[in-house]
Write a structure and sequence with these properties.
Layout lengths: L1 H21 L45 H9 L38 H6 L13 H12 L5 H11 L8 H14 L1 H12 L3 E11 L2 E9 L4 E6 L4 H5 L2 H5 L3 E4 L11 E4 L1 H15 L3 H21 L7 H22 L5 H16 L1 H4 L1 H4 L8 H17 L5 H19 L4 H10 L6
Parallel strand pairs: 1-4, 4-5
Antiparallel strand pairs: 1-2, 2-3
């Protein structure tokens, strides 16, 4: 009889397990929104409600369209090459219209080196007879990093816009990227030093393909500075290779990666990541406690944002104790409801979630105690989307060195963007060996 019950239970549990997998989407797991089935409502953890206003710019909103004043200021500061065309007989009064455009003209700079200069700077003797200039190199690197373009598409684009005067090859573009990655090493070290001085940093990892196998790119970020690291595995040995982690003495915000608890001095858990698990539990177990906790966490975050808007740095001790008592009560209710949950798989998964919430309570609620700790890890996730976009558009990497090169380039480009420094001009300066403002 016992053997017969076991034979019945095994396929029942397997059916439940497979059903759970089929029910996964962006609202209750880490799967992307593109995997959602038709008709599935969007992930709405922020509980935004429709305002009833018409789509588009609202009354009183300052527009971003260029005005005559903006254009004339750009002309005055030399931002544009100013050309004047006349329509009609040039006499008397006239009206002015401005057209903003780009002109792409292939240029060859001929450098004539005389004997006396060679004696002063003998290094010029080793210049190649023909080489590409810093503008072409900078555009290639930017398209590779920000545009997520493959080397052959970069070649095709630049050759086409030059009227096929250029004959760039894929090897040339790869060489530009490799050269830039080598030259930007000291600036990456500066970013790491800046991040080491922060109290809290966000970190996450995303899977990419390297030589047909799964590899990872991890980033460490504060918004003003970000550094990307290539990892062939997610093991402790691979994490130890990231010297930043072994040196960092602050708080790491992450998506419940238990291996990261060996680094830093404090840990904040991403609560948006947790909200997906709570959503999934509500759907499968039919319990009320998970939805209640999700609403409670959302309310905590809203009250925190309101206090931060008033330049508050932390909640009063009594307020935090009230929040923690609510948290504990919800988990106690969850334990009671878990005993009545139908389905062995759903009950076990719910119990596992409750254990995690109890064990990592301090980490999930750290954002209440310290306002430098974010409620979620969305910053790192957003900055990793470039890697996913490149994976989709250009494919994976062929060897570890290529992945490391990409991480070095992206570290510089995204850091400059975060600091609101002109990216293309700075890439050009690094190629020229001119000190870049960092």
């Amino acid at each position: 009889m016992e053997d017969k019950d076991r034979q019945i239970r095994i396929p029942t549990d397997e059916n439940e397990r497979l059903k759970r997998r089929l029910n996964n989407d962006s609202t209750n797991s880490s799967m992307p929104p593109s995997s959602d089935r038709p008709g599935k409502p969007a992930n709405h953890y922020n509980a935004r409600e429709k305002s009833g206003k018409k789509a588009g710019a609202q009354k009183g909103h300052k527009g971003t369209a260029l005005t005559r004043k903006d254009v004339e200021e750009k002309i005055r500061y030399g931002k544009f090459l100013h050309k004047v065309e006349t329509l009609g007989t040039p006499c008397g009064a006239y009206r002015t219209k401005y057209i903003l455009d780009l002109e792409i003209v292939p240029v060859i700079r001929e450098i004539r080196i005389y004997g006396d200069y060679e004696k002063e700077s003998p290094a010029q003797l080793y210049w190649p007879a023909v080489s590409y200039g810093p503008n072409i190199k900078a555009i290639s690197v930017d398209l590779y990093a920000e545009g997520g373009m493959s080397n052959d598409r970069i070649c095709s684009f630049l050759n086409t816009v030059s009227g096929n005067a250029l004959t760039l090859s894929e090897e040339s573009v790869y060489g530009f990227c490799k050269e830039f990655a080598r030259k930007c090493c000291p600036y990456i070290r500066e970013s790491e030093e800046e991040l080491l001085g922060e109290k809290t940093v966000c970190t996450d990892a995303t899977a990419v393909t390297m030589n047909g196998k799964q590899a990872y790119i991890r980033n460490v970020s504060t918004g003003n500075a970000v550094v990307y690291y290539a990892m062939e595995k997610k093991s402790m040995e691979a994490l130890d290779e990231i010297k930043f982690l072994t040196r960092f003495a602050g708080i790491l915000e992450h998506d419940h990666e238990t291996a990261l608890y060996h680094y830093g001095t404090g840990h904040g858990e991403c609560n948006v990541y947790l909200l997906r698990y709570l959503e999934k539990n509500t759907e499968e177990a039919g319990s009320s406690w998970a939805g209640e906790l999700a609403r409670e966490l959302y309310q905590m975050n809203e009250e925190r944002k309101e206090l931060m808007g008033k330049e508050g740095r932390s909640f009063p001790k009594e307020k935090i104790e009230t929040y923690e008592r609510r948290y504990d009560k919800i988990l106690r209710d969850g334990r009671e409801q878990n005993r009545k949950t139908k389905g062995q798989v759903a009950r076990e998964e719910e119990e596992k979630l409750l254990r995690r919430l109890e064990k990592y309570k301090e980490n999930h609620l750290l954002f209440l105690h310290d306002f430098t700790v974010p409620f979620e890890n969305n910053l790192s996730e957003r900055e990793l989307r470039k890697c996913k976009k490149r994976q989709k558009m250009s494919g994976g990497f062929r060897k570890p060195g290529e992945m490391e090169m990409y991480c070095s380039i992206l570290s510089i480009v995204e850091t400059y963007k975060g600091k609101e420094i002109q990216v293309l001009d700075t890439i050009k300066k690094i190629f020229e060996g001119t000190p870049a403002i960092f």
